[in-house]
Specification:
Oligomer: heterodimer
Largest sheet of chain A: 6 strands, mixed
Distance between the termini of chain A: 44 Å
Number of domains of chain B: 1
Mean pLDDT of chain A: 90
Helix content of chain A: 25-40%
Order of helices and strands of chain A: EEEHEEHEHHHEHEHEEHH
Shape of chain B: globular
Distance between the termini of chain B: 50 Å
Structural class of chain A: alpha/beta
Chain lengths: 232, 321
């Protein structure tokens, strides 16, 4: 089930700004890989390039060895790479259940997943009535319904109630164990990244400056510099 | 005022409302369900009507072959328009559609040899001969009149148009309840979310544009048969905006709101025709014609203020972001 994602020298500029400036990384099959970096490091832009919502100007993106950098977003999703967005993209004038069924028409599984994130009580309400944190969870459930082989989560913990975060982490770990889904997660909550991830990739100024286990990253001076400034 | 009590007149009002229903149903599918801003719906009506009339008069085709081909021609035109323009942002797409509808009208006005030009379908045939495209249709209408045992041919037309309208409404109503319809609504809400779940947004939009165009062509055929003659002036952009008024009056994203909106609009439009009592009778008839449009505008503003969601729309959906 799990997939390998390879990013090679991807460049994406906006006007004169090189948002992603030759980024390369590998996400190992079955891993939970955290993507961290200061604001403006290019994490979300890289997500968009990988998932087909932006076109990389140069470089290659490979899913299980096959190039996807020239494919359109829906084709990449069908190939098994599904992403969520930083701000949830809830379909507000459709019910919570309809949001989930859009990904795949399997009501039993939909209810099961909604129960998991405690949204089953809201299944028949319009999704626009959900809070920000609930919308985040709904987006996650919707992405899971698409049965991805690799799931890209853009700040899944942002806006989620602290009490739910631990549960959410457990769900993500359970998911990996059960379905062998590969996960690439952008997250600002470093505590979460260090606890949940097997591998961590650090970006700064559009480049990948370090890759390794959480332990290695914690000790890496380039990472400390990037976060705290080079004078330390 | 005797026309007010004549059954034939009100049957005519209902026939026109039925034609508007079919025209606006296409728009409801495109905008109300999918979020496509089509300001050129009338063009597809014109393409359907002209294709049928030209094939019947110039090529001597049977009406029953020419009419379906008119529908197909409009759907193909919708596809051809959509291919380059549907990747544009919604507002730019809207500009392209209204330009397209004006191009169709200008072509119909100026291509005398093909369309009869500004003289209309009467000039479709050879010089000095008034062309007719509705012989077979009138024969059919008379037979329907016989089956129904009615003396008024307007009533036969009413039954034909509304039977067709109700069948089409039912088909669309069923279609939007399927998975396909769910994807359309998702596209209306957020295209990128739909794409992120593997939906080919462009393909769905193209399908909806073509289906809406085919519906407009059906309305165009009935329009052609009801009036026995038409010219490019019958396909002014105003007609597209009548369809928009109907969809907004009835309520967005509601199939059965379309006939309700059409009937309300049709009766408003026809009812204001009788503003010939004092003090309004001091105005001349041309002035009263404008007054009629002003009154319709005011009534619609009033309705929209009182029920911004439309007659059958759901207010709850309007406040969600």
């Amino acid at each position: 089930m799990s997939a390998t994602l390879t990013v090679e020298d991807v460049v994406r500029t906006f006007g004169g700004v090189r948002a992603v400036d030759g980024a390369s990384l590998v996400v190992e099959p079955g891993s939970i890989t955290g993507l961290i970096g200061p604001n403006g490091a290019g994490k979300s832009t890289l997500f968009n390039c990988v998932s087909g919502f932006l076109r990389a100007q140069s470089g290659r993106v490979l899913l299980d060895g096959r190039r996807i950098d020239r494919s359109r977003a829906h084709r990449i999703a069908r190939a098994g790479l599904v992403r969520t967005f930083q701000t949830p993209r809830t379909l507000t004038r459709m019910t919570v259940l309809e949001n989930v069924l859009l990904a795949r028409d399997a009501p039993t599984r939909a209810h099961e997943l909604l129960r998991l994130v405690r949204l089953d009580g809201h299944a028949h309400e319009l999704a626009g009535t959900l809070s920000g944190g609930q919308r985040k969870l709904l987006d996650l459930v919707r992405a899971l319904m698409a049965e991805p082989r690799i799931l890209l989560l853009d700040e899944p913990m942002a806006g989620v109630a602290p009490a739910l975060r631990v549960e959410l982490l457990e769900h993500i770990l359970a998911l990996r164990a059960r379905d062998r889904v590969t996960l690439l997660i952008v997250e600002h909550d470093l505590d979460f990244v260090m606890r949940a991830c097997d591998r961590v990739v650090v970006m700064n100024d559009g480049r990948v400056i370090a890759q390794g286990t959480p332990e290695e990253i914690r000790r890496d001076e380039r990472v400390v510099d990037a976060y705290l400034g080079a004078r330390h | 005022m005797s026309v007010l009590t004549s059954g034939g007149f009100w049957a005519f009002v209902c026939v026109v409302a039925g034609i508007y229903t079919i025209l606006a149903l296409g728009l409801q599918l495109q905008f109300g369900f999918t979020g496509l801003l089509n300001f050129g719906q009338v063009a597809f009506m014109a393409i359907g009507a002209y294709t049928m009339a030209i094939l019947v008069v110039k090529e001597g085709w049977s009406t029953w072959l020419a009419a379906p081909l008119g529908i197909v021609a409009a759907a193909v035109a919708g596809l051809l328009l959509g291919l380059p323009s549907l990747r544009l942002r919604a507002d730019y797409f809207a500009i392209v559609t209204i330009a397209f509808s004006e191009i169709v009208r200008y072509v119909a006005t100026n291509e005398n040899a093909l369309t009869g030009g500004s003289q209309g379908t009467i000039a479709l045939g050879s010089v000095g001969q008034a062309a007719q495209y509705n012989g077979q249709w009138e024969h059919f209408q008379t037979r329907v009149q016989g089956w129904l045992h009615v003396s008024d041919s307007d009533v036969a037309m009413l039954v034909i148009v509304w039977t067709t309208a109700i069948v089409l409404l039912a088909i669309v109503w069923l279609a939007v309840r399927t998975r396909w319809g769910r994807v359309l609504r998702a596209i209306r809400e957020d295209e990128e979310a739909a794409a992120s779940l593997g939906k080919n947004v462009f393909a769905y939009k193209l399908q909806v544009l073509a289906i809406g165009s085919a519906l407009a062509a059906i309305a165009g055929l009935f329009y052609a048969w009801e009036f026995s003659f038409f010219s490019p002036d019958d396909f002014q952009p105003l007609l597209t905006f009548f369809a928009w008024m109907i969809v907004i009056l009835g309520g967005l994203g509601r199939v059965w709101a379309v006939p309700v909106g059409s009937l309300v609009f049709g009766f408003l439009f026809a009812g204001t025709r009788f503003l010939d009592f004092r003090p309004l009778s001091y105005l001349d008839s041309a002035e009263r014609a404008y007054l009629r449009l002003i009154i319709i505008g005011l009534v619609i503003i009033g309705l929209v203020l009182l029920r911004p969601q439309g007659i059958l729309g759901r207010r709850k959906e309007m406040v969600l972001e």
